[in-house]
Amino acid sequence: MAKGHRSTTSQRKESRKNEIQYIKELETRTQEFDLKNNKTNFFRDLPISNATLKGLQEASFIKLTEIQKDSIPVSLKGDDVLGAAKTGSGKTLAFLVPILEKLYRERWTEFDGLGALVISPTRELAMQIYEVLTKIGAHTTFSAGLVIGGKDVKFELERISRINILIGTPGRILQHMDQAVGLNTNNLQMLVLDEADRCLDMGFKKTLDAIVGNLPPSRQTLLFSATQSQSLADLARLSLTNYKTVGNSEAKNGTNGLENEISTPETLQQCYIEVELAEKLDTLFSFIKTHLKNKMIVFLSSSKQVHFVYETFRKLQPGISLMHLHGRQKQKARTETLDKFSRAQQVCLIATDVVARGIDFPAVDWVIQVDCPEDVDTYIHRVGRCARYGKEGKSLIMLTTQEQEGFLKRLKSKNIEPNKLTIKQSKKKSIRQQLQSLLFQDPELKYLGQKAFISYIRSIYIQKDKEVFKFDEIPTEEFANSLGLPGAPKIKIKGMKAIERAKTLKNSSRQLLSLSKVEDDGETLKEEPKKVRTKYDKMFERKNQTILSEHYMTVTKAAADENEDEDFMVIKRHGHQLDEKDLPELIAPTSRRAQRKALSKKASLSSKNNPSKMVFDDDGNAHPIYELEDEEDFEKRGSAQRQKKEFLSKESATMAEVDTEDKNLAKQKKQEKKRRQLELMRREMEASMAEEHSEDDNIGEPVAYVGTGHLSDDMDEDNYESDNDPHPRKRQRVDYKHDSESHTDTNDIIEVEEPQTLEDLESLTSRLISN
């Protein structure tokens, strides 16, 4: 046993020694790698470990892309990287491979704490990065974790202390830094910001500053995006001083600065059309109807618009599967939608910019931008959902007359010149009347339409580029009519400071906000006890759930503002005089007749004329239930006498056909009745003969053959008198003759004439019984 133990220990020492020697060889190859004459085209040519290389091969990652070829050798040398490349160029592997190699060369274990931190602006992008990491790191011994909003916080807190690579969104990462006891970031080796320009904007500024404040300054930092910001203030916040810029722009400019932004992929066909704001929904519906066998993404500016367009188009049924995705959905619904859309082939996804960055959807044919993006960077990220990894794709943006000149100028400054397309009027279909009909029938759809209208107007108001987005020139009435609304809703615009504050609160963690309030108002909270909130309080505090809740909040707020001493009816309008003579008399009726009239809805409407009820046809046009024809249309069809003759002749022919059918039906009923009677008599006759046969022991019992023995032959129409026969045959009495000569000892057979009527059959039956 002791010898075996010594052998195992020696083997472990030998394996550790070999591993250390192998790591030294990798470090030597990395330092000797020539960055200027970099001609590597495959992952196997890079100085990376066998475990990482095996995971890449099993995940079918063999050949390097441009950004991977330029950034991975620089990252392996330990330098900070500011990387920019076209959308769909493989930036995810450009920072995941250096993370695995860094931790492998440091011989990282679960007891060393957190080694790498990857921050993503959206949940969907974080989940995609985690899935790629699990594929290429299958043969490594590192633990990885995903922390995003919408998941169980307690489940993550229990396991986050044993995680080596942490991937998540800024709000949830900061929450774990404040709450998780076992999360140790003192030994962090690498910080990665995917879509760095989005992470560095105003929405995540405070959250990201708080995260960076908890990290050691000696780390390695990697920033990747399709569009990068070269702001010195942003880079200084991340402690980037001696960094290297990689990407296609470096080869073009020959410098370490990004003088020109990265353009879109060459395989992407970019187009634009000039459409008025009131015609955008008609154009979008017509486009979907003419591209039913494609996979497309439709981008709108707000979640309210996405919800409204999805619900209305779902009822109009364009002929293709519809999905929607926005930031206000539950995490489970967002994940299921992403999975379904990735596996589908012919589908339309209506979404906001929550899926505009970094998400890799396979085989997207079209990207349609109904609302103009806020800047060129957003445009580049949106169109980057198609034409990925060298595949072909198409994009279409709808620009109004006010937006066209300014936005095309900004696209041209980034070397992007989309082609102009014209709309075929024969293919275009208007859905305005159908939308009006839907909103008239469904109040919730009308409520969604109002919210979509308000959210779009506010999105235009908060845009910084006033040369492109002209708030004063928006045709509000026409836009409201295009949504099916009877008029433009009233809008209350907040100040820019309030909007920026709301944007900051939206991207921050709710629990962190509550903790900050406790720290700021700790003394007051200690003095005043916390109020207990029941489930009913939470229910009535919800907003934008249904129409009733919004109205309830308005009514209760108005009732709370009024004083109890005020009268029941208060005049809110001022500046005019009311004459008491003009006011109606509010006196209850005294007579019984007046009381019945007041209580009866029918009687009260008789004096005011009945209201005209409207119905909608298939095209969405409104018509009264009883609609009279115009005199001109009546005279176009001819004179009154002629129309009268035509009507009478037509009705006569119809009556003749109906009369014939009625006669045939009556005839069939009579025949059926006769069949039932005959069948009943035959059953009675057979029953009586069976009784006689059982009582009589004689062999030579007389037998009578009636008819042919087949009921269908016996009931032939020739055997009965026709109901329409003008000369009916006289009934003949049948003489029953008994031929004694034909009567033999062996067979007593009675020969009779075939009965023609029921009376003949009855007489035959009685004769047989008597014999």
TrEMBL record:
- The residue ranges flagged as biased composition, category Basic and acidic residues, are 634-649, 677-692, 733-746
User: Per the UniProt entry, what is one GO biological process?
Assistant: rRNA processing
This protein's species is Zygotorulaspora mrakii
Q: Which residues form the Helicase C-terminal domain?
A: 280-431
Subunit structure and binding partners:
Interacts with the U3 and U14 snoRNAs. Associates with pre-ribosomal complexes.
EC id: 3.6.4.13
Q: Name one GO molecular function term.
A: RNA helicase activity
Basic residues biased stretches: 666-676
Where's the Helicase ATP-binding domain?
A: 72-246
Recorded catalytic reaction(s): these are: ATP + H2O = ADP + phosphate + H(+)
What's the protein here called?
A: ATP-dependent RNA helicase
- Residue ranges annotated as compositionally biased, kind Acidic residues, are 714-723, 748-762
One Pfam entry for this protein is CTE_SPB4
